[in-house]
Amino acid sequence: MEDFFNFDDLKEVYDVVIIGGGPAGLTAGIYAARDNLKTLILEKNFPGGQVAITEIIENYPGFVEGISGGDLTEKLYQHAKHFGVEIKNGICRGVEFCDGYKYVCLQYKDIKIKTKTIIIASGAKPKNLEVPGENKFLGRGISFCATCDGAFYKDKVVAVIGGGDSAVEEGHYLTKFAKKVYIVHRRDKLRAAKILQDRAFANPKIEFIWNSVVKKVNGEDKIESITLYDKKLGKTSELKVDGVFVFIGWTADTDAFRGLIEMDESGFIIADETTKTNIPGIFAAGDVRKKELRQIVTAVSDGAVAAKMAERYIEENYPQED
After folding, report:
1. Which of 149, 165, 253, 287 is an active site residue?
2. What pLDDT sits at residue 320?
3. What's the pLDDT tens digit per position in 37-64?
4. At 95, which helix (H) or strand (E)?
5. Alpha-carbon distance 174 to 112, whole Å?
6. What is the DSSP letter of 292?
7. How far is CA 251 from the centre of its chain?
8. φ and ψ at 81, to 5 degrees?
9. Catalytic member of 35, 71, 105, 145
10. Catalytic residue among 148, 188, 198, 264, which?
11. Is 149 annotated as catalytic?
12. What gap in Å lies between CA 29 and CA 23, rounded to an integer?
């Protein structure tokens, strides 16, 4: 990806600007470009988003043996590039409106990109524990990605916080390195898919701690333990660990659109199955949209729908000159 816009870029008028280069954004780009729409994807980190750092994906249709997140991301990225989608680094700080067009405002040198439509596919970010000691060890003992950081904990003891698919799957993955993995869950049963639960229960390196929440992360130069509160017994205890992996949910990455786009209390954009938001010509696709199921397959579906809705909006609001 290019890291900046040159002067010529400022003269461009895009049909579609897609904010976010995960599965939803890349798919939206593929569909938009195939419909001959001038399309730009802005990604603040790297294409693929959270998918890119997922070790193995087993439930994406067509890949019987599974596929790594990196491989799937590369295929989506190359597919979008094949149809002429521009994909560049850029962080959106807001949206402005003028003379019937929308302007995506970037943090870099006050650049504003003129476009007819916008598809917000910025995804979601992991929730923090929000307990004492967490900020001190973020990135140096507390992680949100087992694939990224698991190898640092060879023959060590780690705690995984959460009880959903991500927590159980990542906990199982961590047993490749750690000698012991505690999965700490606030309830007395898991929310993860049955196949993931069965794997975890059968893994001798995994031990579950039920009905418990983290109250504090302890240590001087490194994590030494976490303080747990057993909600059922009403007691606190300390669990000695070398690292903590947090998988307790997500918040939408929508700060740039607060006050403009209608959202729920967690920042997820309210849009129906057409992906239309409360602002005409702005659509929401993927994990950023409020919905019941957040999976890669639902993200790519949203991306396809959003691109088609953008095309329809352009036809209705920007008729071609005779």
Report:
1. 149
2. 72
3. 999 999 998 888 878 877 788 889 999 9
4. strand 92-98
5. 43
6. S
7. 9
8. -65, -35
9. 145
10. 148
11. yes
12. 10
Question: What would the two tokens of residue 313 be?
Answer: 């909006």
The count of other CB atoms within 10 Å of the CB of residue 260 is 16
Residues 16 and 116 sit within 8 Å (Cβ to Cβ)? yes
Q: How far apart are CA 215 and CA 186, in angstroms?
A: 12
What are the structure tokens assigned to 301, written together? 């579906």
Q: Which of 138, 187, 153 is nearest to 167 (CA)?
A: 187
Q: Please say whether the beta carbons of 143 and 246 come within 8 A.
A: yes
The pLDDT of residue 5 is 56
Closest-CA residue to 254 (of 265, 242, 243): 265
Quick check: 119 and 143 in contact, CB under 8 A?
Answer: no
Burial class of 211 by CB neighbour count within 10 A (0 to 12, 13 to 18, 19+): middle
Q: Extract the residue ranges of the chain whose pLDDT is less than 50.
A: 3, 7, 321-322
Q: Which two tokens stand for residue 207?
A: 């031990």
From the list 172, 175, 170, 122, the residue with the least C-alpha distance to 148 is: 170
C-alpha distances (whole Å) from 77 to each of 53, 54, 66, 303 are: 15, 16, 18, 14
Whether 145 contacts 55, CB under 8 Å: no
- Specify whether 322 is catalytic: no
Q: Are 254 and 267 in contact (CB under 8 A)?
A: yes
Report in angstroms the alpha-carbon separations of 280 from 102, 182, 309. Answer: 10, 48, 11
Number of other CB atoms surrounding residue 213 within 10 Å: 16
CB of 254 closer than 8 Å to CB of 260: no
d(CA 100, CA 116): 8
Q: What are phi and psi of 317, to 5 degrees?
A: -115, -15
Angstrom distance (rounded) from CA 205 to CA 207: 7
Cα separation values, 75 from 71, 90, 105, 124, 132, Å:
6, 22, 29, 22, 41
| Continuous segment of H or E residues that includes residue 165 | helix 165-174
Over the chain, what is the mean pLDDT? 93
